[in-house]
From TrEMBL:
Keywords: Membrane, Transmembrane, Transmembrane helix. This is Putative flippase GtrA (Transmembrane translocase of bactoprenol-linked glucose). It is a multi-pass membrane protein. It is found in: Membrane. Residues 52-171 form the GtrA/DPMS transmembrane domain. One of its GO terms (cellular component) is plasma membrane. The chain crosses the membrane at residues 49-71, 77-96, 117-139, 145-165. It comes from Geodermatophilus africanus.
């Protein structure tokens, strides 16, 4: 039964009025006051990784599709197909990362960023070529599907290496530029 006239609701007496934005318990209040800061930083990380993932996904589709087209349908060699597909995908990815996924980071200039990006991608390209070449010539795999599997492994390894290197050297945090 609701409290009568002049009586306070027992829950309200303990917690105070439950107005929008008011949390009744002190420990919950302390946590909820910190939550917006944490969610903003967590939201920022999620958005950043999401943008990196979308740009990477576009690059992935370009690289896998072009590799399959060149090797599986046009008869190109596996290593040549991997090299061409990676170079095309990495060029698209540079502009996507520069203008979207790392747009919030310091700008150190196109003349510095693009060569660093190319150098990092060149290293990961060599890593990827090594993986595909090992699968083709070391393991003597010739099936387009088997070599596509090696290509996928090389892309996964390269993605981790590229992300870490991009953050550190190509698109550094504003406070790291000095």
């Amino acid at each position: 039964m609701p409290p009568g006239r002049g009586e306070r609701d027992p829950v309200e007496a303990l917690a105070g009025p439950l107005a929008p934005g008011r949390v009744p318990w002190p420990f919950v209040t302390a946590v909820s006051e910190r939550a917006p800061r944490r969610s903003r930083s967590l939201g920022s990380v999620v958005r950043h990784l999401g943008a990196f993932g979308v740009v990477g996904g576009v690059g992935f589709v370009i690289e896998v599709g072009l590799f399959q087209l060149l090797y599986g349908h046009l008869g190109s060699g596996a290593v040549v197909a991997k090299a061409v597909a990676t170079i095309v995908a990495m060029t698209v990815a540079f502009f996507g990362h520069r203008h979207w996924s790392f747009a919030h980071r310091a700008r150190t200039g196109f003349k510095r960023e693009y060569p660093m990006f190319l150098a990092i991608n060149g290293l990961t390209l060599l890593l990827g070529l090594g993986i595909v070449a090992f699968a083709r010539y070391g393991l003597d795999l010739t099936s387009a599907w088997a070599l596509q599997g090696a290509n996928l492994v090389s892309i996964a390894v390269g993605t981790v290496v590229r992300y870490l290197m991009y953050r550190r050297w190509v698109f550094p945090a504003a406070d790291a530029v000095g």
